[in-house]
Write a structure and sequence with these properties.
It is a single chain. Helix content is 43%, strand content 22%. It is α/β, with parallel strands linked by helices. It has 2 domains: 2-76 and 283-302, no CATH class; 85-275, Rossmann fold (3-Layer(aba) Sandwich). The chain contains 10 helices and 11 strands.
C-alpha cells in the first residue's frame, strides 16, 4: 500500500498549520487580557450561560484537520494497493501445436481456445491492453499489446495450427513477458497448452524472468484424458500439470485444468474476475467531503457548546 501525491507543491501549505496554531494561541491570550477588564465573571456566566473565552482547543483541532484534508485534496492524493481487480494488461499465449487440432473439444481444442479467448476479451474494461502470441516449437507474435480490443479479437482468429514441431513453453513465457513489460498496470500472462515443454528455453529460467519483472502467469491445461481424433489418429495429450502448477504458483497465478469446454470457459471467467493488480483510488472527493463534514461539526460546536461572548 502506498500514498501517491500528484502535485506535491501543494504540501508546502502544510507549513501554515504551525503558524495558524501560534496565531490561535496569541488570539486566546489577547482575548483573555481583554476579558480581565470585566469585574465579575461569575455574574456574567450566571446571566448568559456562556464562556467569556474558550480555552478549549477542540475547535482549533477541527479547523486544522479540515485544512489538512483540503491541502491533501488539492495535491491530488491517491491510495495505491494490490487487490482483486481486472485493472491489468494481458498477453494470451495459445498453444498452436498439431495436437491442438484434436476433436475432443468442439470443433477442436484450438477453436475452443480461440472462442473462449474472444469471450475473455469481451469482459475486459475499455483501456485494457491485450497482446496475443501463438507457440509450438517457437513463438509467433500475433499482435503486440493494444487497447484496441476489437482489433485484438480479430487477431485471435489468426491463431492457427503451426507446422513447427515441439512445444517451447519457456520461449512462450519469455516472449509474452517481454511484450507486456512496457505496461504501467499489473501484468498478466494467460498460458494455454495441451502438452508439455519439450524443447527450447528451460521453464525455470523463463518463469524466473517473468517473476522478476512482476508478471503473473495463469496456466490452463486443455484436453481430455481420452484425447481426440486428429489426422486419422487418436491423440492423447500428456499435460505436464506439475510444471504448469509450478509456473503459476511461482508467479502468483493459478493453474486451471480444462477437460471440458465449460471448465475452459470458467477458467477464463475466474481470471477476468480475480486478477490481482495495483488498484489506485483518487481520494480527492473523499478528502473534500471529510473536510466539509468537519467544518460543519466545528460550526455546530462553535455555536453551541463552545460559544463565547463577543
Amino acid at each position: 500500500m502506498a500514498i501517491i501525491v500528484e502535485d506535491p507543491y501543494f504540501l508546502w501549505f502544510l507549513l501554515t498549520l504551525p503558524i495558524l496554531f501560534i496565531v490561535h494561541i496569541a488570539t486566546v491570550k489577547t482575548n483573555r487580557a481583554k476579558a480581565l477588564k470585566f469585574a465579575n465573571f461569575d455574574a456574567i456566566a450566571r446571566v448568559t450561560g456562556k464562556q467569556v473565552f474558550s480555552r478549549n482547543f477542540t475547535l482549533l483541532f477541527f479547523r486544522l484537520l479540515a485544512i489538512t484534508f483540503i491541502i491533501f485534496a488539492l495535491s491530488g492524493t491517491k491510495l495505491s494497493y494490490v487487490g482483486q481487480s481486472n485493472e491489468s494488461d494481458f498477453v494470451i499465449a495459445i498453444d498452436a501445436s498439431a495436437s491442438m487440432a484434436a476433436k475432443d473439444f468442439t470443433p477442436s481444442r484450438l477453436a475452443a481456445a480461440r472462442a473462449q479467448a474472444l469471450n475473455f476479451v469481451d469482459r475486459l474494461q475499455p483501456g485494457t491492453q491485450v497482446g496475443i502470441i501463438s507457440f509450438s516449437g517457437t513463438s509467433e507474435v500475433i499482435i503486440q499489446p493494444t487497447d484496441d480490443l476489437g482489433r485484438a479479437k480479430r487477431k485471435i482468429e489468426d491463431v492457427v495450427i503451426r507446422e513447427i514441431g515441439g512445444t517451447d513453453l519457456g520461449e512462450a513465457i519469455t516472449t509474452a513477458t517481454s511484450m507486456i513489460l512496457p505496461s504501467k498496470k499489473a501484468k498478466t500472462i494467460i498460458l494455454l497448452t495441451d502438452g508439455q515443454g519439450n524443447v527450447g528455453i528451460p521453464l525455470k529460467e523463463a518463469t524466473q524472468y517473468a517473476t522478476n519483472e512482476g508478471v503473473t502467469i495463469h496456466t490452463i491445461g486443455i484436453g481430455t484424458t481420452e484425447g481426440g481424433a486428429f489426422a486419422g489418429l487418436d491423440i492423447v495429450s500428456t499435460i505436464d500439470e506439475d510444471s504448469l502448477k509450478e509456473i503459476a504458483q511461482a508467479s502468483g497465478g493459478k493453474y486451471f485444468p480444462a477437460q471440458t469446454e465449460r471448465e475452459l470457459a470458467e477458467a477464463y471467467q475466474e481470471i477476468a474476475a480475480t486478477t490481482k493488480g495495483n488498484i489506485t483510488k483518487d481520494l480527492t472527493v473523499s478528502l473534500i467531503g471529510l473536510a466539509l463534514a468537519i467544518l460543519i461539526v466545528e460550526w455546530l460546536l462553535a455555536n453551541t457548546r463552545f460559544r463565547t461572548l463577543p
